[in-house]
């Protein structure tokens, strides 16, 4: 019989996502070790969507950190200034792996925990994320589907997306999470809704990671 140990002692100083503004040369990322033992942490970047290919034009200044117990350390995300679009946001993943300490118990197994945090590179753009959400266009599509069209240059993150019938009652199964890329559409496949729909209820996630409830007419 084996026992497993997994500890989630790493946090990010209150951040759940990171915004790299186009005017910045580098973006500091603070990693907090809340545990009573030193933590060895590996930090790396990856493309956040399937469209991303090739070598990343960003880098991490300190890809490996040894953080003392109940302390914090920082690393910087660096951008060379070219390689990402300047007319829309780019979506990347900040991957932080907490490397477990080797166990002395031969019957125990330590598990490495990886945090995948959203990182958005935002060049100077018109409008704002909240304005993009307000302009989000919802419409019926073929075969009982519905479509959300994002005409803004921002990634829009939505949670608890639910269709509402003409009485304002939820219809079908809600979608827990979706993210709509800039200048693109997203087709919603909502299961179990068999009556006319008049609104969509959802919450959008702000830059601060806070949830804001919204309703839109179809």
Automatic annotation (TrEMBL):
Gene3D superfamilies: Immunoglobulins. The keyword Chaperone applies. Pfam families: PapD_C, PapD_N. It is found in: Periplasm. Residues 16-124 form the Pili assembly chaperone N-terminal domain. GO terms for biological process: cell wall organization. Residues 149-209 form the Pili assembly chaperone C-terminal domain. Its main location: periplasm. One of its GO terms (cellular component) is outer membrane-bounded periplasmic space. Keywords: Chaperone, Periplasm, Signal. The keyword Signal applies. Belongs to the periplasmic pilus chaperone family. This is Molecular chaperone.
């Amino acid at each position: 019989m084996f026992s497993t140990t997994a500890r989630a002692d790493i946090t990010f100083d209150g951040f759940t996502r990171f915004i790299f503004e186009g005017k910045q040369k580098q973006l500091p990322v603070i990693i907090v070790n809340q545990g009573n033992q030193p933590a060895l942490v590996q930090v790396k970047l990856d493309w956040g969507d399937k469209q991303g290919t090739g070598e990343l034009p960003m880098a991490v200044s300190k890809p490996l950190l040894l953080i003392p117990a109940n302390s914090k350390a920082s690393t910087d995300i660096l951008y060379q200034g070219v390689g990402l679009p300047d007319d829309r946001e780019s979506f990347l993943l900040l991957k932080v792996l907490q490397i477990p300490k080797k166990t002395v118990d031969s019957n125990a197994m330590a598990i490495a925990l990886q945090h995948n945090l959203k990182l958005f590179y935002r060049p100077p753009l018109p409008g704002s994320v909240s304005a993009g959400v307000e302009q989000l266009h919802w419409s019926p599509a073929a075969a009982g589907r519905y479509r959300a069209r994002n005409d803004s240059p921002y990634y829009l993150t939505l949670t608890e997306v639910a269709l509402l019938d003409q009485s304002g009652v939820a219809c079908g199964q809600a979608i827990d999470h979706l993210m709509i890329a800039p200048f693109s559409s997203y087709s919603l496949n909502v299961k179990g809704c068999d009556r006319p729909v008049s609104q969509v209820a959802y919450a959008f996630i702000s830059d601060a990671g806070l949830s804001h409830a919204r309703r839109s007419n179809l």
